[in-house]
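Annotators were shown the component list below and the corresponding predicted structure, then asked to write short factual statements about the assembly.
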Amino acid sequence: MTATARPLPVPSAWSAGYWQAAAERRFVVQECKSCDKAIMYPKRVCPHCLGENLGWRVSAGRGEIYAVTAQLAGPPTGFADHLPYVIAVIRLDEGVQLMSNIVGDGALGARIGDRVVVDFEEVEGTVLPVFRLDAGAETRDA
Amino acid sequence: MQKTKAAAVGIGEVPSGRFPERSELEAAILACRDAILDAGLSPRDIDVVMPVGALASRHFNVDLVFSRLCEELGMLRSAKMNVQVMSGGATSSSMLAVAEGLVAGGLARNVLCVHSDAVGSLPKQAGIDLFSTTGVSEEWEAPYGHNMNAVGALASNRYMHETETTEEELAAVCVSLRKWAELNPHAMFRTPLTIEEVLASRMIATPLRAKHCNMLADGAAAFIVARAEDAPHITSTPVYVRGHGSLVTHYTVSQDTDLARLGFEQAAAEAYAKSGIGPESIQLAQIYDAYPVWPLITLDGLKLCRGERAGAFVAAGETAPGGSLPMTTNGGMLSQGHTAVGGGIAVLVEGFRQLMGKAGPRQVANLVNAVETASGGTWMDSHVTVLSREH
Ligand SMILES: [Zn+2]
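Structure shown to annotators:
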């Protein structure tokens, strides 16, 4: 890794399924087969019941923006060439939250409450789930 | 209401800023020396030393863990324990709570709490990268370019959305802190600042501009906690720890479900109940800042703005010198400087300094009750402590 390399996820034994699905351009969230709750980000044990019987639930990858910022300057190492880029906390329709980038048309104008849908971006051989504004959706009233 | 068990009896501090010629060790020794002398104690009266975790140098941090300060300051074969306490920016509040517990439980008589770090002398990109890994998930957030300025930006975005707070009101927080820093010789930034200057500075991460963001600094501060019953025999200006409340809300910012409030309402309710001192009796708010949105969230949660929106309250000058609620009178991390974990320690030590009547030109008159707050990492936890000159 060079000094300017962008950091990439190093999967754990219990998160590998998430990244494997992303590599196949499928989006999943973790689920607990004991208490049926959705979990993000993936955990070693269920944070609701401490169960270990965990699996993956296929997700439509839809949700809305809970908070968003456009990074214009002062990025961490590996992101200088990507400016400007948009970081958002996304609340999925499954009720769980995750961080991602908003990409594509209108990303720099993304606002709280905007509906988003998952997309995939390959970075140096790793596929990252990212989100774009959901052109078909309406609501903006978080 | 709980029985008062502990008091601060001495404080020490060195100026914050960039001091490449001053090592972390030297700064720590001088801050501890000043705190011991301020309390009128001897090093051999200190039975527990609590150094805070340091970030810039692993070597220095290992020295702190392994009793280096006991050796440097003449405490060998008198100090009983040297133990590191660390909860990031919340360490000010949490180490005070730990020290309170130790003296209340009879495990210590005089606890020396100290922080020293030199993150201000790190190369600029190293500073950005260090704070892009503190409370930022390597697997789930760093690959998306997340960093500490973005943490402040995301919370500002959510808070402004929910409260209709404006960019000018965020800038007013920076201006209020600067006015206090102009009176503080230990502050890194002491030249006057205007709202227009903040809003004209370069956009970093919307809605935060360069002058909305803190600057990393070198610094050190120390304080000594004693048993409440011993305190008046040690010093004529003890500051009593009346009540503490706290709540952990997340590790990574993407997992917080109420980013515009965090846990400050619950923490404040606990601290007010334990201390028997409510928001109407608080005369000084020593609020952990780092970015202007956090004092606003905190003022709301602590119910210190007489029913007004915190942004409007600050913009009206109520928290600046001459206002009805002096806030963070050392200038906070935005003006005294962000010394890593020490930003919160400096805010707490200033609270002690004010209640001891030792704040010089920025002394708040007729002060009896103050509140101190802190939060760690990505504002993972909310801490509130009520302090008083009265037992
Ligand atoms: Zn479960």
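Statements collected:
1. The first strand of chain A starts at residue 28 and ends at 32.
2. Residues A 32, 34-35, 37, 46, 48-49, 51 surround zinc ion (CB under 6 Å).
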